[in-house]
UniProtKB/TrEMBL annotation:
One GO MF term attached to the UniProt entry: metallopeptidase activity
Protein name as it appears in the record: Modulator protein
Species, as recorded: Allosphingosinicella deserti
Pfam families recorded: PmbA_TldD_1st, PmbA_TldD_2nd, PmbA_TldD_3rd
Domain of life: Bacteria
Length: 448
């Protein structure tokens, strides 16, 4: 695998080729990945996978016309053909008044922050296999677990470099590790499945194998013997592992493309309090070892920590350069991209700040409600905010978590849900999007 400096050279060379071919402007992104994965079930190895690859993408501009091409063949002959194809495509493309590179005066200068995203570790496949065995053994040791869906452990590294004809050229590397288990509890028609998973940038930060396996087993057993729940309006408590999906809907609604296309349920609500005044939702691309930390965005702009929501209000849209031009605004350093196509926009490491209420107190006054641990389906209308998803979890009775419940539907509207949202005090940073336990009153539940 190339070093970041070598990757920068590859990207810069492709941009130079594009300029010599007559491009008015161009940018190139190089991405290389290498990963090893171990999958086993019932103690037997099912799969060992090793993958390595590199790709390069070119975006070429002729006036306001542009084309994007990519290749996994980085030979001199292939890159020459790539540039020729991109130039020919761009000359035939329709004009787009909003296309173009990021403003030159906004590009990142200097080296950027060190986000500590690569630990340089390269665990052997034998070590990964042993870790997977320990995960599954711990899960199967939980009383009530009767079968296994398997355990897996993976390790990987990526190198990313971006170069533009405006003079930007930077690269960085990241490492990534994960461990997971899925197990089954019960027998016959009474079987239930659940899982546990953890990902980290540094191998040393990955949860211990027995912790991952034990959690998977305990979750599966807890779902046995689900009870029936009558339909009606009641409070819903979101476990942190599913509550993060609510922030995902928010992020989708504040991206520049959604606003420019008028397909966001938040359109026209820039001045309104969407959440309670105490709610703060923060994006932090510089979090050390964060799963989405990066020094610059997909167009070469510097990234920076920022509140997406402060005092209950959305502070700004997430804008790449094209959507910013369309809206008459400035790009915000949130551009994202792959090797193919034009940039889009999204957030990085996002968290909702913890509230002041303990989880037990958040549940304490609920006579009947639902504690949701799994969501099913994609029933969210991003234009209207209407929300309807299959769910499972546990019934809350008189302030306590009671029997399991499954095959229910929870419904509402995201605007009203955000206004009703109350966070607990148990925030932990374990995912790319982190939230504490969340309570939302007045949601409609369709019982089984």
């Amino acid at each position: 695998m190339l070093t970041p400096k070598e990757a920068e050279s590859r990207a810069a060379d492709l941009v130079e080729r594009a300029r010599k071919a007559g491009a008015d402007a161009a940018d190139a992104i190089y991405v290389a990945d290498a990963s090893t994965g171990i999958q086993l079930r019932l103690g037997a190895l099912e799969d060992v996978e090793r993958s390595e690859g590199e790709e390069i993408g070119l975006r070429l501009f002729v006036g306001r016309r542009s084309a994007s091409v990519s290749s996994s063949d980085l030979s001199d002959e292939a890159l020459k053909a790539l540039v020729e194809r991109a130039a020919a495509m761009a000359r035939e493309a329709p004009e787009d008044p909003y296309s173009g590179l990021a403003p030159e005066d906004r590009l990142m200068r200097g080296e950027g922050p060190d986000v500590d995203g690569d630990d340089g570790c390269d665990p052997l496949p034998t070590e990964l296999k042993q870790r997977a065995l320990e995960i599954e053994d711990a899960a199967r040791a939980i009383a009530g677990v009767t079968n296994s869906g398997g355990a897996s452990v993976s390790a990987g590294r990526s190198v990313i470099a971006l170069a533009t004809s405006h003079g930007f050229c930077r690269g960085y590397s990241t490492s990534g590790y994960s461990g997971s288990a899925s197990v089954i509890a019960g027998e016959g028609a009474q079987m239930e499945r659940d899982y546990a998973q953890h990902s980290a940038r540094h191998y040393a930060d990955l949860d211990a194998p027995d912790a991952i396996g034990r959690l998977a087993g305990e979750r599966a057993v807890a779902r046995l013997n689900p009870a029936k729940l009558a339909s009606g309006a009641m409070p819903v408590i979101y476990d942190p592992r599913v509550g993060s999906s609510l922030i995902g809907h928010l992020i989708g609604a504040i991206t520049g493309a959604a606003i420019a296309r008028k397909t966001s349920f938040l359109l026209g609500k820039e001045e309104e309090a969407i959440f309670a005044e105490s709610i703060v939702i923060r994006d932090d691309p510089h979090r050390p070892r964060g799963l989405r930390s990066k020094p610059f965005d997909g167009e070469g702009l510097p990234t920076a920590p920022a509140d997406l929501v402060a005092n209950g209000r959305v502070t700004s849209w997430l804008l790449d350069s094209a959507s910013a031009r369309q809206l008459g605004l400035a790009p915000t350093g949130h551009a994202t991209r792959g090797v193919g196509g034009s940039p889009g926009a999204s957030a990085t490491n996002v968290h909702m700040e913890a509230g002041s209420i303990a989880v037990d107190d958040l549940l304490g006054d609920i006579a009947q409600g639902v504690y949701v641990t799994e969501l099913i389906g994609q029933g969210v209308n991003m234009v209207t905010g209407d929300y309807s998803r299959g769910a499972s979890g546990f019934i809350i009775e008189n302030g306590k978590i009671g029997p399991a419940v499954s095959e229910i539907t929870i419904a509402g509207n995201l605007i009203e849900m955000f206004r009703q949202l109350v966070p607990a005090s148990d925030l932990e940073f374990r995912r790319a999007v982190n939230v504490p336990t969340i309570r939302i009153d007045g949601m409609f539940i369709a019982g089984a």
